[in-house]
Amino acid sequence: MIIDQGDKEVQNTSLNKYALACALVASMVSIVSGYDTGVMSGAMMFIKEDLGISDTQQEILAGILNVCALVGSLTAGRTSDVIGRRYTIFLASILFIIGAILMGYGPNYAVLMVGRCVCGLGVGFALMVAPVYSTEISSAASRGFLTSLPEICIALGIFLGYISNYYLGKHLSLKLGWRLMLGIAAIPSIFVAFVILSMPESPRWLVMQGQLGKAKKVLLRVSNTAQEAELRFKDIKIAAGIDENCTDEIVKVSQKSQGEGVWRELILRPTPSVRWILIAAVGIHFFEHATGIEAVMLYSPRIFRKAGVTSKEKLLLATIGVGLTKITFLLIALVLLDKVGRRRLLQVSVGGMIVGLTTLGFSLTMVEQAHEQASWALTLSIMATYVYVGFFNVGLAPVTWVYSSEIFPLRLRAQGTSIGVAVNRSMNAIVSMTFISIYKAITIGGSFFMFAGMSVIAWVFFYFYLPETKGKALEEMEMLFTKKSSGKSVAMVIDPMHKV
Question: Per residue in 474-485, pLDDT tens?
């Protein structure tokens, strides 16, 4: 059943401090995920020198995390439906602890790969569950802000990874430096594992389990008023197939409400609205990495070296600039998500990415063709990289996670989000494991022209397939994707026979 409520949920639009605290703790697990990406970009230079690995082994080492994250994300959806969002975050933290210890020990390439795989499983769990948890405790007015916190934490983790590369690589021995870079990720994971157990469970998951009394208590804490909590509680009960007037503390719910039969509803026999939702979620996750961000974040030292930066210290400093740019523009996005809206941010973001990638492709091509060092092309390459990273993080980066975690109906949210994350990690793995081979085949400038072309396709897809969700209650989303938006979104393209 779909409820058309307008904006009745949004009565007090101030940010609830307890909901903010819960989202922050849940999002902290993403710091480790980001740190692993950032630290590996610099650590690979030292690992190659210490262990003597080839370019192919580097590509596998870079990409294997995302192959394992694909497995983790597909498992995480069902896991979070069974044991809850909170314990799934706890499980991700444990995986990060084990993986970081193995990588920090790292006596050889094989052990390093095992540690990277374990961390990859943790990344898959973290990327799926942190946005879902934040989405499910948020009100419509603050959902964009709170659900984008995991992406902020990923950016902070990447930046800390870059800082770690610079200082540990500079001041420690070759053998100790990269191992400490990778091993210290266990420290924040231990902290999150303990703190997350003091946080409440998602009220929407509690309702799916029939634990109405506990769900209402949580909603009273994460809502600004008792009236808002009551309205949200009624909407969630209806979405879970429970009578909105039910006052029992514990009720028996159907297996369907607890996540049974979800794959059939998502893949085999989806309704037109669910099919559109799935296409939108898979599409936005696909294009987040098909547009090349992992090539820049993971291989930025190689890119800057190709542009003409030769000193290892300067390479790492230039990479720190990438991290600062990412954090700065993500903070801007935090302010804009609930004011400007998801759709407009995406259009501006991807448009800027096209400019940045085209300029980067041009400048790197000029560097390669120049017979002597072209300082103007070097400067333009670095500036284009920062422009691309800035525009990516002001829109596509945070909107991907906010949008995909808020559009699925309650019964499909965890496992629907896990499909999106699986696509995300697949594309991440493909880009990270093939970038060196691609730029050797078509030149490094040509590879960024390719990513610019993918960005053009992404802009067109977002324009036609993603309606605006700003300010909508989670329980309204299915109805939003059932409607034919006036002149902007084209539900009929997906199902021409469907009548709204």
Answer: 878 888 888 644
